[in-house]
Amino acid sequence: MCEAKVYIEKEGKLEDFMDNVITIKPEKGKLLLVDLFGEQKFVEAEVKEIKLLEHKVILAQK
């Protein structure tokens, strides 16, 4: 499968944010994340790192 797990880095630690993410789209200064089931979340963050082999996206809050 091609879903990713999204983490937010806070104070040097990774916190789980969202599982099974299939879409990440910049929208109105934020990122829109959509999961496999259609749930949507907005977050004010920027992409810090994407690890494709690990299906992991790391965001850093602005």
Secondary-structure map with pairings?
Blueprint: E1 4-10, E2 13-27, E3 30-35, E4 40-43, E5 45-51, E6 56-61
Parallel strand pairs: 1-6
Antiparallel strand pairs: 1-2, 2-3, 3-4, 5-6
Detailed description of the structure:
With 62 residues, the chain is mostly beta strands. The protein has strands spanning 4-10, 13-27, 30-35, 40-43, 45-51, 56-61. Helix content is 0%, strand content 73%. The chain has a 6-stranded mixed beta sheet, with no helix packed on it. It is globular. The termini are far apart.
List key phrases describing it.
six-stranded mixed sheet; 62 residues; mainly beta; globular
Structural class by SSE content: mainly beta
Rounded to the nearest angstrom, the distance between the terminal CA atoms is 30 Å
Number of structural units classed as domains? 1
Q: Sketch the major β-sheet.
A: 6 strands, mixed
Please state the overall shape, judged from the principal axes of the Cα atoms. Answer: globular
Strand order of the largest sheet: 4-3-2-1-6-5
**Average pLDDT, all residues:** 96
The number of distinct helices, counting runs of at least 4 residues, comes to 0
Poorly predicted regions? none
Elements, N to C (H/E): EEEEEE
- Residue share in helix: under 10%
- Approximate strand percentage: over 45%
Q: Tell me which oligomeric state these chains represent.
A: single chain
Rg value: 11 Å
Number of strands: 6
